[in-house]
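Q: Two folds, back to back.
A: First:
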Amino acid sequence: MAKIVRMPTQAKGGITPAEKQLMDEHAKLWISRAMRTDPIEPAKIVPAIEGIYAAAGLKKPRVVIVPSPLVMAFAYGAAAAIWYAHTATRAATRAATRAATHAATDAATDAATDAATRAATRAATHAATHAATYAATDAATYAATYAATDAATRAATDAATGAATYAATRAATRAATRAATDAATDAATDAATRAATDAAIYEATDAAIYEATDEATRAACYDLAGASGLACASEWTRVYQGGNTWAPYEAYLTAARDILGLRLPPHTGYAAWEQAAIHGGFRVMHPEFCIVSDFPEILKVDAENRPHCETGPSHRWRDGWSLYHWHGVKIPAEWIENKASLTAKTALTWPNVEQRRAACEILSWAVVLKELKAKTIDRDDDPEIGELVEVTLEGSRERFIKVLCGTSREFALPVPPETKTALEGNAWSYGVEPDLLKHIEVRT
């Protein structure tokens, strides 16, 4: 058995039972931070953000706190577009007077304006989000996080102890902390929120917003910065950081420090990033400003930590922006808030398969089959092969296989109308021959 070594610059040899217990508690701490629903505290998040910029060698930014990730994204779009227009104007003036003012202004403005000058020849919306923010965003995110976090556990550890030390440290901490917090937080926080924010903004740029909060936010963005502001908003993921929703990696880094005892020079720079992960949610970074979202006031999950609520939103922020999920699947709000709008016909014909399954579960399969007077055509002894049923939709006969997935949840798949058995329908859904599928089922 490898000798366990614990020094400020070394951590190798696996972990002790006592350390494993501490890591379990450490993971719970970061899970609670990822699931936070208390209001954000300006007195704590603002110094943390300023510290990140300072660690990257950037000037102190304007820090703006907003009530939700949706407002954050649109506010970023408007502000980035406005700053880009301002910078482009300055760049044009600078080009006209450079010969006379080069010595006095070049050192102070060159880095800030060159990118905008080059970008002026590109499309306005791309330039607003990419050229005007990329250099400073890269410095604020990559430089600060790489030097302060990655180096703290990877480059610095490698240099101090060699590959074996890093491997041991990584194995000891990541397995006990990051994996646990990944499973408990990602589906419920970062992934779900990021996808929903992206979807809302995509709809906004296509003028397809249908929820009042989204529409008001989109309109405000357009009033401030026009079409370029909306285009910038659609690019928000280029410059975002997850804050408390990136808890898995933070748990990994801090466990190496707090439990295994690593004390490395980059930990000094990491301190501000850590505080921002504890005290803030999603944020977007710009050389002039940082916009930080408040935490949700509601965050509900199922037994597997997937976002889920049967009676209301799984996520709701204090401005009213809400997301609805059914066991991790994003669903239309009306399926929960106005259950009468969800019919068996909708459930069985909804284009997205996962949402179709969720709709059938919300209604319950008993209701779906009863409402459509489903007729059983064939039922396989294996519930994972399922049952072939036939229903009448808008005057035509349609066939579905009702199957039980590996998580013991039922869902429906449409199959060709000529399908004669459940096995045939199930095999068709996988694109294989029935005999092959049956052979696989027998072997397993």
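A: Second:
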Amino acid sequence: MSFFSRLADRARATDSILCVGLDPHPDLVGAEDADAALDWSMHLIEATAPVACAFKPNAAFFEALGPGGWAALGAVIEAARKHAPVILDAKRGDIASTARAYARSAFEVLQADAVTLSPYLGRDSIQPFLEDPERGVFLLCKTSNPGSNDLQTVPLAGGGPLFRRVARLAASWNLHDNVGLVVGATDPSALAEVRREAPDLWFLAPGVGEQGGELAPALHAGRREDGLGMLIPLSRGIARAADPAVEARRVRDEINRLRSTPRPQESVAGERARLADSLVEIGCIRFGEFTLKSGRASPIYIDLRRLASFPVVLESAAAAYQEILGKLKFDRLAAVPYAAMAIGAAIALGSGRSMIYPRMEVKDHGTRRGVEGEFAPGETAVLIDDLATTGGSKFEAIDRLRQAGLQVRDVVVLVDRQSGAGEALAARGIRFQAVFTLDELLDHWERFGRVPAEQVKATRQFLRTQPG
């Protein structure tokens, strides 16, 4: 039987996806001693075994205690395996004979059922751990620490962040139902992305509790449709409780309550969700204290001109526009200068559609053209802009295009601030569509913890009180 089949059987038998961490930190144990670490771990195993889907001893805390600690680790694994599968949290990663030695150490010497690994060295560094279907691996994908963004979210030339490439590779390597992923509960948005890339894999999702991860958004984002496919590891929160048995059962029951509730409907999902997150990551949308042109103080600032400096995100934005544009009939893309020029060019390159643009000012020399680019009077142009507030700048561009003999029936933007632009354009007979409304973005960022709740609240209050 494969490792994850056994894990699923244990989850159903205990009605639990709680993974109890065995981390004998000296502060918890009360001593820096192998015997004390062993006694402490044994007590925690016996207290939590009825509701533990798995146990996860952290190799580092045992190894730090020397030969005695290594012996204690073996004894802890042996005791824990009598109740549930054991995942050795060792984060190994090496190649050739070294990788094979690590696999032998984890599976043959220590007798762990699974181990955490770094996939950074590629398939050959993982292969020795995959040969026995009864032994599993969890590959580091999007980890729970803040520094994970240093490498794991780096955009690839083909599009998307590195961690999504890891997820796709893991799914392709899962030939024996023994490959899972480590995806931190501190980043529900990444959890949702990885779940889309690897719909069948099991996730180990650390970070709930002291690292700031919250159960509800993590479970909604990461669990499979069958309610399984996810382990929630907890260590200190249970170990520090006055009664670890009571606390483990309480956490198990809370997890079950949440995973039995329907997922909230997502207005922003898939590639749109990643684009929404990228807008915050690259500073196109910022939160804090800003002074607007009007002199009014604002808790949010939107600067979509920055997209030009981030070609991967720009390409993603252009693709999102194209989802809307593909349903419209038009002859030319017309980008509003200057904010939408890069966006319009990216859409043109990605779709093969011709782009023109209305000038902000018509020169009194040269061709004196009001609209630059190739077009013919009578053709239809769709107006592309980055942002819509009241619609004022759109009317100026539409008038310039119409003066040149072009018809304009549609306006498409990336973000609608919901400040009246749609209504104003409709009054002039212009259809208006946006990739995102600001409300959708705020809901998404709040749900997945991308923006602190107090900043979302301040922004919503600001939007309610802005002049009509």
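Q: And?
A: The mean pLDDT is 91.
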